[in-house]
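Sample intake sheet
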Amino acid sequence: MPNDSMDEARSISRPLRIALAGNPNCGKTTVFNGYTGAKQHVGNYPGVTVDRKEGFIEVDKREITLVDLPGTYSLTAYSMEEIVARRELSSKNVHAVINVVEASALERNLLLTVQMLEMGIPVVLACNMMDEAAKGGISLDLEALSKALSIPVHPMTARTGEGLSEALNSAIAVADKGTNEPLRLHYGNDIDSALHQMEEIIKKASLLADAYHPYYVALKLIERDTDMASEVQNADPECAKKLRAICDETFEHVRATLGTNMENVITDHRYGFIRSVLGNGVVKRDPTRDRLAVSDKLDSILTHMFFGPLIMLLVLYAMYQFTIEIGAYPQGWVEDGLAALGDLVGESMSEGSLKSLIVDGIINGVGGVLSFVPLIVIMFSLLSFLEDCGYMARMAYMMDRVFRMFGLHGASVMPYCVAGGIAGGCAIPGAMATRTLRSRKEKLATLLTLPYMTCGAKWPVFLLLSTAFFGTEDAAKVMFCMTLIGWAMALLVARFLRSTVVKGDPTPFVMELPPYRFPTLFSVLMHCWERAWMYIKKAGTVLLAISVILWAMMKFPELPEDRSAQLEEAITLAQKAVDELPENAKEEDKEKALDALYDAQNTLSEEELAYSLAGRLGKGIEPIMAPLGFDWRTNISLVAGVAAKEAVVGTLGTAWSLGEIEDAEDEEATKSLSDRLKEAPNWSKATAISLMLFVLLYSPCFVALVVIKQEAGGWKWLFFSVVFNTILAYGVAFVGYHIGLAFWPE
């Protein structure tokens, strides 16, 4: 008996892992932030780019790990979010689940709840947004709901923190009790009989016993869940064969007698159970009040067939204008700080390769990217606001009308938006988001065209060139045009692909629009910090490594000694001519002597860069790129951009640092990269337009290419993306350059 008490005490004091699960837009992230605050760790699940969020808290000196699962409507393996959520729940590391549901949309939200109960997981139901439900005339009998589902149910308003502690304490209590028996719904005599037969086979074979209850394995197999079927096949092929035979027989019987597929039957019975639970006075509505009145009135304008898209364009333009106008101030402070750091480090170090590496390679390379962090932070804040308030879902809804004309699915909107359709995204998670598309043809068309979006990696390039050549006043217009061009090219190429390489009919699109909500400041700031920190980490890791490699390529091999000595002698003679000038020398003579000195110094710097490995590569492809207005320095940056698009700016910064004189008395040494480019003789507005168009459309970055290959399922699509996109970029940039020359002759 004492041993039993000790075991129980150890069990109760053990660290717990509690998951937060729920539908998209149910307020789950607000709940997670309310529990964990800043004590969060954001990463990715192994092998995928789905966000993995964990928070660490203590309750009565007990360690609790909170896991924020990806938002999902079910646990059926259609999307990567659903697969990740289910595998996390089946890992045996999760001791309980707080299922966050929207109080005013219980019928839709409870489908996920029922599926978790069928797994046998201890669940606590948190009815969030109770304040909104009350305003909409909806009242809930939570005690009756708890009794009907046989689980704890708590009211919650996460925005204000109400109900958070109660739900967490309840989750700790059910976690200590251990696993539950799975919920067993009645699916009809034929299906129930098959499930019982399969459960016995699974139990006898101990099939996947470490992950799932036997009943749940049988249920997912009868649903034709491909992910579960794969797990069973890998675990026990012989047993899988027996189970598959029962499934096939039951499936054929259901199709013959009911004229539908098994998935529909299962889903209908689940919703039938949910309606029976909610129909016994659990939900009461005031018929005189419309809970969606405000959202409906707003949608009558914001999603209007004509005014909706116009308002959407104005919102996007306002975001650019606000970001550039306000962000110019902190960006200038960062640039000044980096310039001062470069001067300080340069003055404290003796001349040599180490100084060049730190100042030219790292500070000017990575620093050129970091200077855009203030602008990225502002843009991410605006994006988070639009996402949390519900407007981004409306943008997807409106864009579906257009997408159908180009052979795409409405669900393609979100991968495009994630990839940078609203500037600031990334092609990598955008490519992963195509897993929600069931049609392979639509998925391929989306996957191959989403790299045209203005992702956050391209932003520094566009910001640098638009502000340098078009001024702060017109930079927002240029950025806005780049976004529109990216969308237009994506749709046009998608139409081309759907008519040639990936022919097929488009599938229908169904979407539920969440009600508008005013997001909390904390939630917006958390989203902004997560994305900005990922950008900064990339600059400090991937881009740092790229900057060092590119610096070495631009520094070595060094000029032959005889040529270097010849150029050094020319500099010495020019310096001597400046030193020997009399004090009363004419200004014209002084300028002539100084120009000769600067020309001699520039000749040495440029020849050193041109002789390097990167310089030779840039010079080698210069004849091909010259029709686009690109010089060899620009060519070097474009090659670096295949590794990471942010590297284009960093490489230009390094190239112009190594290829320009660094004389303490010369203003040129303290000028920013934008000033250097603007004053360079081979740069113009037409060149800037050409480069922006080329960067917008040419080969995706290396990591994005790897993800595209994984998602498309073959190397041929990786090579297609590199070759086709680069050829397309060349053609568009060529046209853009010559149109630019017509408007702004050099």
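Comment: Residues 307-348 form the longest helix (42 residues). Residues 307-499 form one domain.
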